């Protein structure tokens, strides 16, 4: 029973995180930024630094989430409703085939001046591990009281961070094979999945808040 809960939690968090992060949708931005790289090794290093920054960011918020809730006097249900609304807004933008403006702005992209800064801002934060993914890990980490449930959330963070590295280091091949149309199609599909998860998050938050 506990093992089943572990896999259910892992699959749900992994699916939500991957849809929110949408590393495939981030490929065009990554390719425009790697013009700063002077070698293939530099591009690989940038992809690696970005994935590590994503993992560290999400892990930090996952571990500190419950403390943040207590500090600001917020409940998990209230945060779930707010997070669901945020995710739904992002999903609507993804359904239009666009990279969410909640995640990145042109100003943030232009401010990066070296590889170390680019890997953290804007690639890791807020392009990939933005408000949506941070909200997701905080909510699910707080909702799972058992150590097995929390381990499932951490495993989902680890695997999605690794997939970010895999996709970014193969960014040129991904764009060549999928093309801009293919990337937009996948972004729309991710947006549809994210929209359904966002609605469910709001429903669960309302049920918990009103004891339904």
Automatic annotation (TrEMBL):
UniProt KW keywords: Cell membrane, Membrane, Transmembrane, Transmembrane helix
Segments crossing the lipid bilayer: 12-34, 46-65, 71-92, 113-141, 147-168, 189-210
Compartments, record wording: Cell membrane
Pfam families to which the protein is assigned, alphabetical: MarC
Record has Amino-acid biosynthesis as a keyword: no
Membrane topology, as annotated: Multi-pass membrane protein
GO CC annotations, alphabetized: plasma membrane
Homology family: Belongs to the UPF0056 (MarC) family.
PANTHER family found in the cross-reference section: UPF0056 MEMBRANE PROTEIN YHCE
Protein name: UPF0056 membrane protein
Species, as recorded: Thermococcus sibiricus
């Amino acid at each position: 029973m506990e093992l089943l809960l572990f896999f259910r939690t892992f699959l749900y968090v992994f699916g939500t995180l991957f849809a929110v992060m949408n590393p495939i949708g981030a490929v065009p931005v990554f390719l425009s930024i790697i013009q700063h790289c002077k070698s293939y090794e530099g591009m690989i290093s940038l992809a690696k630094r970005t994935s590590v920054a994503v993992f560290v960011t999400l892990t930090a918020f996952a571990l500190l989430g419950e403390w943040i809730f207590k500090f600001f006097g917020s409940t998990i249900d209230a945060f779930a409703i707010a997070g669901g609304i945020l995710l739904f807004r992002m999903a609507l933008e993804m359904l239009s085939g666009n990279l969410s403006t909640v995640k990145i702005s042109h100003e943030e992209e232009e401010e990066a001046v070296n590889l170390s800064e680019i890997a953290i801002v804007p690639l890791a934060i807020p392009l990939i591990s933005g408000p949506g993914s941070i909200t997701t890990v905080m909510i699910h980490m707080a909702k799972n009281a058992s150590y097995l449930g929390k381990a499932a959330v951490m495993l989902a963070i680890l695997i999605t961070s690794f997939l970010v590295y895999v996709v970014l280091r193969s960014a040129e091949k991904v764009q060549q094979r999928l093309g801009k149309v293919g990337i937009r199609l996948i972004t729309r599909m991710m947006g549809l999945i994210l929209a359904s998860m966002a609605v469910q998050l709001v429903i669960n938050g309302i049920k918990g808040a009103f004891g339904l």
